[in-house]
Specification:
The chain is α/β, with parallel strands linked by helices. The chain is 41% helix and 13% strand. The structure holds alpha-D-glucopyranose. This is ABC transporter substrate-binding protein.
């Protein structure tokens, strides 16, 4: 989505511009977490829960264990949610709508902050309790709603290109591709090698879920297009956006992207790359440490995403932790959030699971750069990444994108028709 856009939908644009009360957007009204300067009180100590996606690396439990050892009366239980971000969001919303106290601290995708804050499902947080000035600015912005802090960055995310260094080298290619055309030309060369027999060229995340929104927006942005303009107005029915979508549609048609990738989320793509089925993969940094323990260990590297005429741009991803408004033991929760988002924890998440740290200093740490040579590339990717709109109705806009992009990828609609329909859906959404 457009880098300069934080508001795509009229309702939130009005709220931001005029500073109107939340009820203008249909929120439930007065609560202690309504963004007023006083904010909620954080009282109560005792056991709490941490609700987050299933963790394939084991590092989350490790960090929680180290908290639990030191806080035997304030233990944290890790509630594991499905890997699919859409399902995580659904479960958290259900939890909030029933005012359940089952989830205390929520691991939230960066795109949920506005929606959860506007509905008062999460508490406004005291910004002075967290070392936000040490964090990369775009990551801190994702945690704010109407200028106030509602979450704390735990891990950032930038899309990168994983590629098989061993095969490229064998095929006489000395550097990672910077354009889509170079990437497909590299694949043609690599596929002539006997060891690349049966391999596919490229995959990303194309199942109909948030990951498709990301991959669509990246393709559009990497072709010089935008999804919404600087004022939050949708502007996706353009020749540049079409070139971006056409890259994906054309790649499915000509087999550059394997057919089965239409069912890929992050994990399916990672497994395909790790089992030697893919030459190139668009994915997030977490894949690095897992792939280093797989069959392709030592045979791959990471480069910036390619684009139409030069390097492309990533969407800004990541996860922030927030405090459920309906939780008990909020004093414990706040302390745990501080611990979980500390520089020490971020360093453990990076070392053990290659999660992108929000802390700037970790990207320049010599020992860490030795372990993860791509850290400078990642820092650049995050600083240049395009945020998805920080709007209350983000879920509706994202569903429309998923719907139309999927229709184009599966051949149900032409790219031109899908973009035309998407433009009209986003306009309708914005007018609500
Ligand atoms: C990653 C990103 C998140 C994004 C999701 C899409 O988890 O951190 O921001 O929305 O992938 O699948």
């Amino acid at each position: 989505m457009n880098a300069r856009t934080t508001r795509v939908l009229q309702c939130s644009a009005v709220l931001v511009a005029a500073g109107l009360v939340l009820t203008a957007c249909g929120s439930s009204g007065n609560s202690s977490s309504s963004g007023q300067s006083k904010g909620p009180s954080f009282t109560g100590r005792g056991p709490i829960t941490y609700a987050a996606a299933k963790d394939s690396s084991g590092v989350v439990q490790k960090v929680i264990d180290s908290w639990n050892t030191r806080h035997p009366k304030e233990k944290v239980t890790f509630v594991q949610l499905p890997a699919d971000v859409n399902q995580q969001r659904q479960q958290m919303i259900q939890n909030a709508e029933t005012k359940s106290d089952a989830y205390t601290v929520l691991s939230m995708d960066v795109v949920w902050t506005s929606e959860f804050a506007a509905h008062q499902w999460i508490d406004q947080l005291p910004a002075d309790r967290f070392p936000l000035d040490k964090m990369l600015k775009p990551t801190v912005e994702t945690a704010k709603y109407r200028g106030s802090l509602y979450a704390v960055p735990a891990a950032s995310d930038g899309g990168v290109l994983y590629y098989r260094t061993d095969l490229l080298k064998k095929a006489g290619i000395s550097a990672a591709p910077t354009t889509w055309a170079e990437m497909t030309a590299d694949c043609a060369k690599v596929r002539q090698l006997p060891e690349a027999k049966g391999m596919s060229c490229y995959a990303g995340q194309f199942e109909k879920y948030e990951g498709l929104t990301v991959n669509f927006a990246e393709a559009v942005n990497s072709a010089g297009g935008i999804v919404t303009d600087a004022n939050g107005k949708p502007d996706v029915d353009t020749p540049a956006a079409k070139k971006g979508l056409d890259f994906l549609v054309g790649s499915f048609k000509d087999g550059t992207i394997p057919k089965e990738a239409i069912t890929y989320q992050e994990e399916e793509g990672r497994q395909a790359f790790q089992s030697g089925k893919l030459i190139f993969l668009r994915n997030w940094p977490y894949v690095y440490s897992l792939a280093e323990k797989s069959k392709v260990a030592g045979k791959f590297a990471v480069a910036p995403l390619p684009g139409l005429t030069g390097p492309g741009s990533s969407s800004l991803g990541g996860h922030d932790v927030a405090l459920s408004s309906f939780a008990k033991n909020k004093a414990t929760a706040l302390d745990f959030m501080k611990f979980f988002t500390s520089e020490t924890s971020a360093s453990t998440f990076l070392k053990d699971a290659s999660l992108a740290p929000p802390y700037e200093s970790l990207y320049d740490d010599a020992a860490l750069v030795k372990q993860y040579p791509y850290l400078p590339v990642l820092k650049k990717s995050i600083l240049g990444a395009v945020p998805r709109p920080r709007v209350v109705q983000y879920g509706d806009a994202s569903s429309a994108i998923q719907q139309e992009a999927y229709a184009a990828l599966t051949g149900d609609k032409t790219s031109a028709q899908a973009l035309k329909d998407l433009q009209s859906d986003l306009q309708k959404s914005a007018a609500q």
